[in-house]
């Protein structure tokens, strides 16, 4: 059983709020005006950046418990931010409707989003009267009928509902009325952990035209570039903006700027792989448990064609010393095969990516690089791709979770080789990895154990090489068929 099956912080917050409503009312015991006294401002017009006012959260107990909400909001506005999110939840975020009222009263021209765990149409009415221009609806907290009722009431009042989606079930609820503005939170609200790729996964399953906000987890320039490069319409910056408004706002300004053609092209090249990879979830959407599949160690066209026919999402080509090593010219010969292509390299600290491999990326023969050696973040983050980490103990799990980048592929440690050994990570270590980060899993996966690994750990990507071979570099067609039979349940 995974950590997210054992707890649900989101549900606990909603239960506490429902109890408070019974005690002090939906208005938090405040004197909410009987009629709206403040102007209604269109939300998220320009730029596509929302900065947040909050004191703490379940994951960070003290962001700034002494903050002056009006002063912080004023700093945002002076830096060109036109849309502000205000946390009004009291028990876990130390927020209040008073913060929202005070900010809107001081700066009536600013568009304010009320961010809270809202439960019924009365919450929408009170948000409107308090001065909110927009309000958050967390679809997972509401049944389909209540979600629609609250959305419709907001529209009637001229407000902007932001519908936050976390799952296929949430999407099914919202599909009935196709909200125009969607928020997708990279933070799993059940366990309050960041999963940077979750917004891409959920976005791939939305089938109507809408604008989509990437929420949470924005701390660095790389994070902002990732959101821009993967095509989101807007971004919500929370903790980083509260802790350091000047730094966060500089990042936000870069998101809002109209990119130069060269800059836009570079961003698409660096992050386009992630958009393409997670876009493949649309193909697998009927099966909620189906992970993305990378078949590695491809050395010939027949095997490549077969794994494509079976439904693989990524083909891996070994460009390091290995029995499965291929040449750049072979990868060039695979250019027209319709599958994402990843080159696997093993570099030492400070070693540059070889020119002939960089050329494969630049020409489009490769979509990304898997860095499987001792590369440092400064060396691998500048290329399309991701880091692989060999895990042998709990300390290695912690180190892997701390590596920057949207995802880290975890593989079993071997002193004999960097990968392709057929060795599995110990179950307890896999469990710890899955509780810390998005699980991309390699090492010792076979047709016989794949279904159990999927059922037990719900990996988002599995990487298989030796487990489906008849000999190094040559795939066994029967093993491949059995593997995909297990993957597809």
Verbal overview:
The protein is α/β, with parallel strands linked by helices and 489 residues long. It has two domains: 3-257, TIM Barrel; 274-487, Aldolase class I (TIM Barrel), CATH 3.20.20.70. Helix content is 40%, strand content 18%. The protein is built from 21 helices and 20 strands. The strands form four sheets. An eight-stranded parallel barrel has the order 1-2-3-4-5-6-9-10, surrounded by seven helices. The chain has an eight-stranded parallel β-barrel with strand order 11-12-13-14-15-16-17-18, surrounded by four helices. A two-stranded antiparallel ribbon has the order 7-8. Helix 3 (69-78) packs across helix 4 (97-106), helix 9 (221-229) packs parallel to helix 11 and helix 9 packs across helix 12 (261-279). 47% of the residues are buried. Residues 1-6 and 261-265 have low confidence and may be disordered.
